[in-house]
From TrEMBL:
This is Putative bifunctional protein: Glutamate-1-semialdehyde 2,1-aminomutase, Acylneuraminate cytidylyltransferase. SUPFAM superfamilies: Nucleotide-diphospho-sugar transferases, PLP-dependent transferases. Pfam families: Aminotran_3, CTP_transf_3. It comes from Candidatus Neomicrothrix parvicella RN1. Its EC number is 2.7.7.43, 5.4.3.8. Keywords: Isomerase, Nucleotidyltransferase, Pyridoxal phosphate, Transferase. Its cofactor is pyridoxal 5'-phosphate. InterPro entries: Aminotrans_3, Cytidylyl_trans, Nucleotide-diphossugar_trans, PyrdxlP-dep_Trfase, PyrdxlP-dep_Trfase_major, PyrdxlP-dep_Trfase_small. It comes from the Bacteria. GO terms for molecular function: glutamate-1-semialdehyde 2,1-aminomutase activity; N-acylneuraminate cytidylyltransferase activity; pyridoxal phosphate binding; transaminase activity. Gene3D superfamilies: Aspartate Aminotransferase, domain 1, Spore Coat Polysaccharide Biosynthesis Protein SpsA, Chain A, Type I PLP-dependent aspartate aminotransferase-like (Major domain).
C-alpha cells in the first residue's frame, strides 16, 4: 500500500519568464526543448506524484508559459508575481492537494526518484515540511509539505521576504514539524541550477552527455565524479544565493555582462562598497532616504549621490523647475535662455570672472577648461594637483616608465588607450609643495596650473597665494577645479574663502542638485581662447541642466545651504571623534567638513570601510567611512545615525588586528579605487 493512499499529492512548479539575472531562463532550449519542459516531463515520472501544476505570474510576459502548459497537458495557475506565497497557495487550493511538492523552474535536473525519496521520508517520519539539504548539489532542490503547513504560512507570514519565497516561514514556524534530508553519501559540490548564462552551458552539457532526460540523480552524481570538467563552466559562481540575493544585486550581476565594469561611475560599482550584498540600484530617493528595487528604505549618511545632492534628493523647487523645463520643451533648434541667466549668475558670484561655458559632467568641464587654458597660454604642458576626471590630458600623467607602483599618480588605473605621445604633457605636484610647482614652471613648458583648491588637507599658510604668484610669474593659466569643493562652504567657489583668484574655475556635482550641469568660468582674456579652438556638443544645449542650476542656486541662497552643510559636516566630524573616544580607539578625520572621512588607527582602512558599510547596511543605513553632508541631514537623522554607529564602533574597539577584522568580513573586503594625488 502506498504511503499516500487516499491523499492527493501535487507537484507545483513555480516559474516565471522575467528573471533578473537570466531573462527567459526556463524557456532556454536544451536538447531542442525548453528547460521547463524537461523538468515537467521528469516530474511526471515520480511514482508518488498524482498531478503536476505550473504556477506562474498573471502578467502578459508569462503567457508563453501558459501555452507551454497547455501543450504538455498540465494545469497552469496564474497569480500574483510579487506575492508568490499567495500564488502558490491558491494554486494548491485549486487542486484539492493534501501534500505538495515545491519545485522551482530553475531546477530542470530534479529527478523523479529524488522527489519520491523526499515524499517517502516525509510520510514515514510524519514531518509537516521536509527539504533537501546542502549536501545535495545546488539545483536538486525539493521541498514537500502538507497543505496545513502551507495554509498556516499564508495566514501568518507578513514579511515581504516570506511572501516572495513561499517556504521560509514554514522552516522556522514552531508549529511546523520541519526537517532537512541530506544525501545518503558524499556528492560533489557542483552547481546545476539555472540562473546565469554559465549555468545554461553546464546544464546543456549534462543533457547532451546523456542525450535524453530520463537520467537519474545518481547518474548525474556519477557524472560529477567521473567527468568533473562537464561542470567547470559555472563552478566560479558558487552555490546559488538567489533566495537571499536582492533584486539589485541580481541586476548588478546581469549588468556586468552587458556594460563594461557594470556601470558608468567607478565610485558606484557595487564592489567598491561591499564584495557582495550591495543593493546597487534605486527605485526612488527623497531627502536623504533611498529605496532599492525591493522597496527597502535606507538612510543615506554616506556619499549622497557621490556628492551631487547638497539640497537632498528630490528637492521640490529644483524638481519643479526641471518639470517645467520638460513641459516647455527640453530641446529645439534654438538655444535655451536659461544658459545665459545661469552664466550671468555664476559671473556675479565670482567678481574676477567675466564669462562661462557649460557642459554636463565634471570630467567634460575639466577637459573644456584645460583646452581653453592651453589655447590661451600657447603651451601644452599642464602642472596639476588633485583629481580631475577620466580624460586623456589627465591620465597622460600615468604614462611613465619604470615601476607602476612607484610612478603612477593614480595607482590602480591603467592608462590603456591614452596615446603614449601625450607622455610628459601632464605632470603632478603634491598639495602644499610649492617648491615642486616652481620646479615644473621653471622648465618653461608649463602653460597651465590645474588644481583642486582644497581636499584632504588644508592649505599651508601662503600656499595658494604662492601658487597664484608663481603661475602669474611664469605666464601660466591658473585653473581651480571646484567640481567637488564648490558650494560646500560658501555660495560659490571655495577659493573665495581663501581670497585667491584663479584665471579659470570649474564647477560640477553640486551645481544642479542631481541634474547634469557643469560650468567653466573665467576671465575674458582667457575664455575668449575658446573661439580659437573647437569646443562644441549638441547636448550641452539642452534645457534641463541650466534650469536645474538656476533653481539650485536659488534654493542654496534661500536655505543658506553651503554654510549649513559646512556646519553639519563639522558636527559629524565632532561626533565621530566623540564616539571613537567613548569606544576607546584613535581616530583621524580628513577633508572639508562637508565631505569628511575618517581613519581608525592601527586597522586597515579598506577593511574598516567594508566592515562599517556591512554593519550599517544591515541596520538600514548607507554609510561607510566618508560622508557628503546635505541639508537633509537633520538633527534627528544624525542622532539616529550615531545611535546606530555606536555599537559598530564598540565592535571595532574590540578588534586588535587586521586578521581579526577580516574574520568579521565573510566575503572579504570591498575593492579599492584609485588614490588622489593630494
Amino acid at each position: 500500500m502506498s504511503l499516500y493512499t487516499g491523499q492527493h499529492v501535487v507537484a507545483i512548479v513555480q516559474a516565471r519568464v522575467g528573471s533578473v539575472r537570466l531573462p527567459g531562463k526556463v524557456l532556454s532550449p536544451v536538447l531542442e526543448k525548453p528547460a521547463l519542459e524537461h523538468l515537467i516531463e521528469r516530474l511526471s515520472r515520480a511514482e508518488l506524484v498524482d498531478q503536476v501544476v505550473l504556477a506562474v505570474p498573471d502578467t502578459a510576459v508569462n503567457d508563453e508559459l501558459s501555452i507551454l502548459a497547455d501543450r504538455l497537458g498540465v494545469t497552469c495557475f496564474r497569480g500574483s508575481e510579487t506575492n508568490v506565497l499567495d500564488r502558490f497557495g491558491l494554486a494548491a487550493d485549486s487542486t484539492d492537494a493534501q501534500v505538495i511538492v515545491r519545485i522551482t523552474g530553475d531546477c530542470p535536473l530534479v529527478a523523479p526518484e529524488l522527489v519520491d525519496r523526499v515524499l517517502s521520508e516525509r510520510a514515514t517520519k510524519q514531518y509537516d515540511y521536509l527539504r533537501t539539504g546542502q549536501s545535495f548539489p545546488d539545483g536538486f532542490d525539493v521541498e514537500a509539505f502538507t497543505i496545513e503547513a502551507l495554509r498556516r504560512a499564508r495566514a501568518e507570514a507578513t514579511e515581504p521576504y516570506d511572501r516572495e519565497h513561499v517556504t521560509p516561514y514554514m522552516q522556522r514556524d514552531p508549529d511546523t514539524h520541519a526537517a532537512v534530508l541530506e544525501a545518503a553519501h558524499a556528492v560533489p559540490e557542483e552547481r546545476v541550477t539555472l540562473d546565469e548564462p554559465e549555468d545554461l552551458e553546464v546544464i546543456g552539457a549534462v543533457f547532451d552527455f546523456f542525450g535524453h532526460n530520463r537520467f537519474s540523480f545518481e547518474d548525474v552524481a556519477q557524472l560529477m565524479r567521473s567527468e568533473p570538467s562537464v561542470f567547470a563552466g559555472n563552478r566560479h559562481l558558487g552555490r546559488d544565493g538567489g533566495a537571499s540575493m536582492g533584486t539589485g544585486e541580481k541586476l548588478w550581476k546581469r549588468a556586468k555582462r552587458v556594460i563594461p565594469g557594470g556601470n558608468m561611475l567607478l565610485s558606484k560599482r557595487a564592489e567598491m562598497h561591499l564584495p557582495s550584498g550591495w543593493p546597487s540600484y534605486f527605485s526612488r530617493a527623497k531627502g536623504c532616504r533611498v529605496w532599492d528595487l525591493d522597496d527597502q528604505m535606507y538612510v543615506d549618511v554616506g556619499l549622497m549621490g557621490v556628492g551631487t545632492n547638497v539640497l537632498g534628493y528630490g528637492h521640490p523647487k529644483v524638481d519643479e523647475a526641471v518639470s517645467a523645463a520638460v513641459t516647455a520643451g527640453n530641446m529645439s533648434t534654438f538655444n535655451c535662455p536659461e544658459e545665459v541667466w545661469l552664466a550671468e549668475q555664476l559671473v556675479d558670484l565670482h567678481p574676477w570672472a567675466d564669462m562661462a561655458r557649460f557642459a554636463r559632467s565634471g570630467g567634460e568641464a575639466c577637459a573644456v577648461a584645460v583646452r581653453i587654458a592651453r589655447a590661451a597660454s600657447g603651451r601644452d604642458g599642464v602642472a596639476f594637483c588633485g583629481y580631475h576626471g577620466w580624460s586623456d590630458w589627465y591620465l597622460a600623467a600615468n604614462l611613465t616608465e619604470g615601476s607602476p607602483l612607484a610612478t603612477h599618480l593614480l595607482p590602480g588605473l591603467d592608462p590603456a588607450g591614452v596615446p603614449r605621445g601625450l607622455a610628459g604633457s601632464a605632470r603632478g605636484f603634491a598639495y602644499n609643495d610649492l617648491a615642486a610647482l616652481e620646479s615644473l614652471l621653471e622648465t618653461g613648458e608649463i602653460g597651465v596650473v590645474f588644481m583642486e583648491v582644497e581636499r584632504s588637507a588644508e592649505p599651508d599658510p601662503g600656499f595658494l597665494d604662492g601658487v597664484r604668484a608663481a603661475a602669474s610669474r611664469h605666464d601660466a593659466v591658473l585653473v581651480f577645479d571646484e567640481c567637488t569643493s564648490g558650494f560646500r562652504k560658501n555660495l560659490g567657489g571655495l577659493h573665495l574663502v581663501h581670497n585667491v583668484e584663479p584665471d579659470v574655475a570649474v564647477f560640477g556635482k553640486t551645481l544642479g542638485n542631481g541634474y547634469a550641469i557643469s560650468a567653466v568660468i573665467g576671465r575674458e582674456s582667457v575664455m575668449q581662447a575658446a573661439q580659437n579652438t573647437f569646443i562644441s556638443s549638441t547636448f550641452w544645449t539642452e534645457r534641463i541642466g541650466p534650469a536645474a542650476g538656476l533653481a539650485s542656486l536659488a534654493a542654496m541662497r534661500v536655505e543658506d545651504a553651503p554654510a549649513r552643510i559646512d556646519a553639519i559636516g563639522l558636527e559629524i566630524r565632532r561626533r565621530w571623534v566623540e564616539l571613537a573616544d567613548s569606544a576607546g580607539f584613535p581616530i583621524q578625520t580628513l577633508g572639508l567638513p562637508a565631505l569628511g572621512s575618517y581613519l581608525i588607527g592601527g586597522l586597515n582602512p579598506l577593511a574598516v570601510k567594508t566592515f562599517v558599510t556591512q554593519e550599517m547596511l544591515a541596520r538600514g543605513y548607507l554609510a561607510g567611512t566618508a560622508t557628503y553632508a546635505s541639508v537633509a541631514h537633520s538633527s534627528e537623522i544624525l542622532d539616529g545615525y550615531f545611535d546606530t554607529l555606536s555599537p559598530v564602533f564598540d565592535t571595532l574597539a574590540g578588534i586588535e588586528s587586521d586578521e581579526a577584522l577580516l574574520a568579521h568580513l565573510p566575503n572579504g573586503t570591498a575593492h579599492s579605487g584609485f588614490q588622489r594625488l593630494a
